[in-house]
Amino acid sequence: GATFMCLAPEHPLVETLSRGTDQETAVNQFVDKVSRQERSAEGIEKYEKEGVFTGTYCINPATGEKIPVYTANFVLMGYGTGAIMSVPSGDQRDFDFARKYGLEIRVVVQPEGEILDGATMTEAYTGRGIMTNSGQFNGMDSKEAIEKMADWLEASGIGKRAVSFRLRDWGISRQRYWGTPIPVIHCASCGVVPVPETDLPITLPEDANLLAKGQSPLPTLDYFARTTCPACGREDAKRDTDTMDTFVESSWYYLRYCSPRYDKGMFDPKAVEYWMPVDQYIGGVEHAVLHLLYSRYFLRVLNTLGLVPFKEPFTRLLTQGMVCKETMTCPEHGYLFPEQGEKQDGNLVCTMCGKDVDVGRVIKMSKSKKNVVNPNELLEKYGADVTRLFCLFAAPPERDLEWSEDGVEGSNRFVNRVWRLALTCMETIQGVDAYKGPADSLKGDQAKELYIKANQTIQKVTADIETNFHFNTAIAAVMELVNAMYTIELEKADDELKSVIWFCLENVLLLLSPIIPHFCEELFAHMGNKGSILEQPWPEFRKDSMQTDDVLVVVQVNGKLRAKFPMSADSGEDDIKAATLGDSRIVKYIEGKEIRKIIVIRKKQTLVNIVV
Ligand SMILES: [Zn+2]
Ligand SMILES: [Zn+2]
User: Fold this and answer.
1) Ligand approaching nearest to the C-alpha of 191
2) Which domains are present in the chain?
3) Residues 177-231: pLDDT tens digits?
4) Which end of the chain has fewer surrounding CB within 10 Å, N or C?
């Protein structure tokens, strides 16, 4: 499929190949023109793809055919070797170039169920297919053919397998104090000499004047900068006073954290083997392209050197969303803080000039846009727990969170609701032991239902937090359990039900303790427990108490809901009909009337429709 070659205009062969040919002048003019263009991967996208024939041909080693050599502005010297074979049927840039200069487009991969023709195709085909125009490889699947072709090229001695990386040099030296000193000494006789390993690490002088004109004070500190050359002993050698880019250290700090006081090397290999790799990394998405990539690269190097036994530093990554809020602008005063707008006759106006305030889009909180909330005021008014609860409840952590005063207020109401429930429980049932047995041993329906609900809640909260930190749905599940607890009339509860309620209360606090820790700690102590709730094991649910055997029967008479009651899941249709017709709430609607139809529909619930 290669029908021509392209050289970068900077390639030394361009001049050599065109010299003395008819194309020499055209090539020189072209090279001159391109030299004024921006020559970077991003830069070349700005210019139309163009090129000129160098006046020379080369031999395609696979076919023995003569193909023309061009120089083109979309080929970069710094990428690969600066010389590419062009396969216009399989690469869009090559395709555009071939069309522009009337070069042959030869199809080598035919997509299944289609016949492409180089003369008429309108764009390059980059997908998989069947090999054609490829000699001995004709008829093969294109993906399998890649391996076979590589084998053949190697066996024929005209090429070998290679992996290409796009790696660029990284200037890591910075002219500032805060950083790791570069352990290098400059000597007039020896040049650049590394600091001997026994003298590492070089530490920063702690008495440097950091206010000196905004520059790094290190070059001015003679006692730091002046040193002896470790190679020749010259006493006028100079220590490098640049420090390393912070990205260098952030690329491997996680290894050092495993043994921060270790002084025999970068890290204690035993500690690293024990702690690493990191189980869970939490960071903003801005880390994804730089810091995380560098970290992986550093670790791969350390692995290759045999210093760490694993290849990836982080097992799981969570990139959290941002906290957002709407902006407010006054025509006179520009961006306003939330407290600078106030409601007047239904309009939001500026507190300084009274003009109407324009409420803008919900965007990331930033000081310059003033769409921020003052944490101190929130802590003052609601406390840290309510603020935490709102943040965790408002959105899953990977999504942006829209700040809302109403939402904070709602969280406050929930916390108070739990507080009142707990106090009521303590007044009426304190001293009861929490029920811990299987649901089946419970006699009362209410006790059984509530106990199962509590076990389901433990399972859901545990899974929501452990699988993806979805505290929002975990909190919602606890809210449901609290609602269920509120439906119980405590004064009328028997001992069995009381012990189930106590179980529920203990678990509500345990499940909420990572979310509103101070609040839960306080109630935990009130309940008469010793020690901290944070030292308690995470609750476990009973697998044998996860679902009721009962199904809810919902009864409608002439389309109106008249009764609901639980029945054993294995009840037959006749039993259900009998129970329905015997229910006192139903009897009053059907007494003395002709029952024209009674239909039982069994799904998750059982629906009984009676037509009279
Ligand atoms: Zn020297
Ligand atoms: Zn104003």
Assistant:
1) 1
2) 4-155 (3.90.740.10), 173-247 (no CATH), 251-318 (no CATH), 406-545 (1.10.730.10), 550-611 (3.10.20.590)
3) 999 999 999 999 999 999 999 998 899 998 888 876 778 888 888 889 999 999 9
4) C
